[in-house]
Description:
Layout (H helix, E strand, L loop, with lengths): L1 E5 L15 H15 L3 E5 L10 E3 L17 H16 L5 E4 L4 H6 L5 E5 L6 H8 L4 E4 L2 H9 L6 E2 L18 E5 L8 H11 L2 E5 L5 H8 L7 E3 L5 H10 E6 L9 H8 L4 E4 L4 H4 L6 E4 L4 H11 L4 H8 L4 H16 L1
Parallel strand pairs: 1-2, 1-4, 2-3, 4-5, 5-6, 6-7, 8-9, 8-11, 9-10, 11-12, 12-13
Helix pairs in contact: 1-13, 6-11, 9-12
Amino acid sequence: MRVALVAPFVAAIDERAPQIGGAQAVIADLGRGLVSRGHDVTLVAPRGSFVTGTTVVDLGIAPDGSAALGRGGAVSSQQAAFAAVADWLGSRPFDVVHAHAFDAPAFATLRGARVLHTLHLPPVDRVVVAAVRAAEATLATVSESCRAGWAAAGVSVQELLPNGLDLAAVPLGTGDGGHLAFAGRMSPEKDPAAACRVARSLHLRLRLAGPVYDEAYFGREVRPLLGDTVTYEGSLDRAALWRVLGAATATLQPVQWDEPFGMVVLESLACGTPVVAYRRGGLADVVVDGRSGCLVEPDDEAGLTDAVGIAARLSREACRSDAERFDLGRMLDAHEALYRRIAG
């Protein structure tokens, strides 16, 4: 089957380097996995992208960080980018065009019976929500929670395609590093500052990992909390991230939004490390409360703090077992089945 994967233009999809977010890592795994199963995969992505086995098309579109979540990228530049993508795709016989962008022009220009859009985010942008409502394509999202959020916004999402992870590539950690972990964008919706406060209140070490997505927030809320026991590791590649997560006693996820899925949570469980998080969005789909982590009421920072000791006593083997529900093979199976239906 000939499949075109259309990536967001926020950042390059480069498997050799740290990714800006979970969606980028999932797209890379999806492309590589489909190739391993004999499919012809073309990746339409920003300049500098690389995924083993795929044909990467450079349409002259540079990564545009201004189009990232909450930054209100220039609509005119997005329109030009996706118009160029639609023109290029229109002259080629793909069986399925699978778009992953969360920009209104993507839904307006990429449409048709063989087009699939995966909504990797909840309905947080009214302009995008309006565009999705008008989309003429198959719609999918990554968790039941995210699908319910879109339904509440008046959008019926027909398909569910949960994210996956190549568990065979993830080593089971020992949790003997003597620290807590936080991984994710340094931004308000991920709230690493709360993780810092929890660790400090418990007099435990904390290692933070992830790109600085919001410089003002990081400087104002996070940097003053760094020190000998709270360290910022920067943006890590996946192998380095798994080492940090695998050595941790628990991974903190005090998110301030309805997390659409939670790839960091899945990666932590794959490493055998329990998760302590607010019960928001797709995190409840991934973490089995009381078995592979502890989910507390949103914004209950004291409850989050108390839960760290409980999580530390949970079975690391149970965490790994719960992660197996989202193995990459299952993700590829679901995508292939949907592609076959769309391609007829």
